[in-house]
Design goal:
The chain has about 325 residues and is of the alpha/beta class. It folds into two domains: about 45 residues; about 260 residues, NAD(P)-binding Rossmann-like Domain (Rossmann fold). About 45% of the residues lie in helices and about 15% in strands. Helix 3 packs across helix 10, helix 5 packs parallel to helix 6 and helix 6 packs parallel to helix 7. The N terminus is likely disordered. InterPro entries: NAD(P)-bd_dom_sf, Sc_DH/Rdtase_CS, SDR_fam. This is Short-chain dehydrogenase/reductase SDR. Belongs to the short-chain dehydrogenases/reductases (SDR) family. Keywords: Oxidoreductase.
């Protein structure tokens, strides 16, 4: 945009009003809206204090791997967390972690590939904490016995992978968006953030993973579409594309093919290594914060540079 003529005076006036706002001189009604370049716009940045001091994240598949590291990171950064997972073996451990950080966690033992579970989990989040600031659609599967050419795929495996990896992200997003839109309309502040865990398989792929690749490509398209529809509510929707990360699932696949962790990272430009779950979790947390307030509809590769190589082979 090029500013000419009277636009300079408008900008000067806007700067003056912003200065008054920062000093607390403007009345609360004026503080809620600031005139920028001649147009009244909602203030789309809110500090943690303005949101009530606490933040709340709902994470699907938060008991293992990237999901577990994400739950840990949010707790360490002072968030309350809701974890939805079929694996309940670490629920007590997660509660202890939350307690040590003076935070609360709600663990829900359920299958994320169920629309009713998504609705109930979001409702419980709001009932427990009064808000939902970030949804992390992390749950995903790639069973070892499904790594095979498409013509050998069972429809059961195809549907199961799509249900967990893609459908659950839509179910939870739909339920969360209803809450986030309402939060924006009540406060004028951003409604919330959705971070989808995609994969570099959404950009390039490998042999034998047709269902997984299809689900992750669709996640990236869903991310862009939701960002377009819900930006007007200050709701940001982003994706993170991990490369090979040393999660329990990846270790099972490596063992099945008699490969080592070193083999997994051999083609990666960055130190010829695979990634750690915590390295993905740190990016997810950043995207959920106001530090990423002008990011939406895009994806971030946490992949050690494998996408610049273009292939694992």
């Amino acid at each position: 945009m090029v500013m000419v003529g009277g636009c300079a005076s408008v900008l000067a006036g806007a700067r003056a009003r912003l200065s008054l706002l920062r000093r607390g001189v403007l009345p609360s009604s004026a503080a809620a809206r600031v005139r920028v370049l001649g147009r009244t716009q909602p203030r789309f940045l809110a500090t943690t204090q303005e949101r009530g001091g606490d933040r709340v994240a709902l994470v699907t598949g938060g008991s293992q791997g990237i999901g577990r590291a994400t739950v840990d990171k949010f707790l360490e950064e002072g968030w309350h967390v809701v974890n939805v997972d079929t694996d309940n073996t670490v629920f007590s451990e997660l509660k202890d972690k939350a307690s040590r950080n003076n935070r609360r966690i709600v663990n829900i033992h359920a299958d994320v590939a169920d629309d009713g579970v998504a609705s109930d989990a979001v409702s419980r989040t709001v009932n427990e904490f009064g808000q939902l600031d970030c949804l992390v659609n992390n749950a995903g599967i790639l069973p070892v016995d499904t790594v095979r050419p498409a013509h050998e795929y069972s429809l059961e495996n195809w549907h199961r992978i799509l249900h967990v990896n893609l459908h659950s992200a839509f179910y939870f997003s739909r339920a969360a968006l209803r809450v986030m839109v309402d939060q924006h309309e009540k406060t004028g502040n951003p409604g919330g953030v959705i971070v989808n865990i995609g994969s570099v398989h959404g950009l390039q792929t490998a042999h034998g993973v047709s269902a997984y690749a299809a689900s992750k490509g669709a996640i990236l398209s869903l991310t862009r579409q939701l960002a377009l529809d819900y930006g007007k509510y200050g709701i940001r929707v982003l994706a993170v594309n991990p490369g090979t990360i040393l999660t329990p699932s990846v270790r099972r696949i490596l063992a099945a093919y008699d490969e080592t962790e070193e083999d997994a990272g051999a083609n990666y430009p960055l130190q010829q290594r695979a990634g750690k779950p915590s390295e993905v979790a740190s990016v997810v947390h950043f995207l959920a914060t106001d530090g990423a307030s002008f990011m939406t509809g895009s994806h971030v590769e946490v992949d050690g540079g494998i996408t610049i190589v273009g292939s694992w082979e």
